[in-house]
Write a structure and sequence with these properties.
Blueprint: H1 2-17, H2 19-41, H3 47-58, E1 60-66, E2 74-76, H4 90-102, E3 107-114, E4 119-129, E5 134-143, H5 148-195, H6 209-259, H7 265-297, E6 304-308, H8 309-318, H9 321-327, E7 330-335, E8 340-344, H10 345-362, E9 368-375, E10 379-386, H11 393-396, H12 419-430, E11 434-439, E12 443-451
Parallel strand pairs: 7-9
Antiparallel strand pairs: 1-2, 1-5, 3-4, 4-5, 6-8, 9-10, 10-12, 11-12
Bound molecules: adenosine-5'-diphosphate.
Length: 452
Amino acid sequence: MGFIILFLLLLWLFQVVFLQGTYQLLKIRDIEKVAATILNESGSANYEEILNRAAYDNNMCILITDKYGFSPLYSVDVMAGNCEIHNKADTTLYKYRQRVLNTENGMLISKIFNEHIKSQTILFGLVIGTKEDPQGFIFLNTSIDPLNSTISILEEQMVYLTIILLTAGLILSFFMARRLANPIVKITKSAEKLATGNYDVNFDGEGYDEVERLASTLNYASYEISKVDHLRKELIANISHDLRTPLTMVKAYAEMIRDLSGDNPVKRAEHLGVIIEESNRLAALVNDILDLSRIESTSQSLNLSEFNITDKLNEILERYKLLSEQQGYVFNFQKDENVKVKCDILKIEQVIYNLINNAVNYTGKNKLIIIRQINTPKYIRIEIIDSGAGIPPDQLALIFDRYYRTDKSQREVIGTGLGLSIVQAILKQHNFPYGVQSKVGEGSTFWFQITR
Ligand code: ADP
């Protein structure tokens, strides 16, 4: 609307208010042009013809006199003797001559009302030579057509134009506001709610494509933020719970040693054993948290090296020997031929450790864990298979999240809930595909592929 009003205002100014002034300026410019022609062409063979043409083309009377303002040297009368310079007494022309000489630069431009034709005219006078030593005078006279009727027609048209444009502008801005501004206002309100922590807001952006896209992006963002917020709350709850349990134990057993078992070497050793175990759990938890935040926060460059993955797997399994001897776990390594790969050896080792630890923790009664190395031309696939309870399909996508654990009641028994997040962070950093297949009651297969 502002733009339309500005546009109308300009139109009114130029078409109605300034029209007369502009027209007169143009007339004066014409006069000056004719005067220049008269001066420049003097002496030409067809001087008279040139003057005639200039006079008729511009509807202008021309009179060139001697230095006294008398005896016309040249004269073209286009107004049948009704102008201000023809058919005038000598005294009148002499008066004009004096007025020209009285001007500063020897040029007179003056408006005179002509009684015969009932119209304003412009009288132009110019000294030929200098004011001190005039050679002659040029007088020009032309009428300024009255523009009043033209202006009143324009005014009437402008009234219609104003009404049409204002109405169109109103309708247009109404629709634009409905389609563009209203959704944005709604989106802004929703965003304000989101900012105060209400993650259930819905961004409604009907209207233009771009607004709809903005709304759906914001919906997606608010969904992600709510997830992060949920995770953050869970993370704090979990960390504090995880830290509190071992700390309570450490404190309780330390007090027990102080008050009761300090003198009893057997009891004391047992209680110290619990303290040490709990401290180890604490240390493991803190280490996992640190590991994860280090891997996730820095784009820490990978320390790539070439090594034999088959040997590495053998070496890792060697360290589980004690576990299999003491607790009856069976590790079955099914491998293709020895092969070298290039990746960050320490990090990939951690991935394998975390996956085997999970398999140990969650495998079934037969305590069987299968480790598979499958060679293909494009990648080496490593699979860690257990025969445990498996993971329900709706939770498969979640287990790689931080602190996600399928069975919350098991918290105290095993794990920190960070193992798979670390696995995920490392494999993502390497750009290696990974995943899990699982059937409830039959077991799970965790896999990743080292690209060759
Ligand atoms: P945790 O320290 O609890 O094992 P992880 O991040 O390693 O943490 O695993 C997250 C969750 O995924 C576990 O709590 C468990 O519920 C599930 N999970 C991981 N590995 C297995 C597996 N081999 N079999 C069944 N469930 C598993």
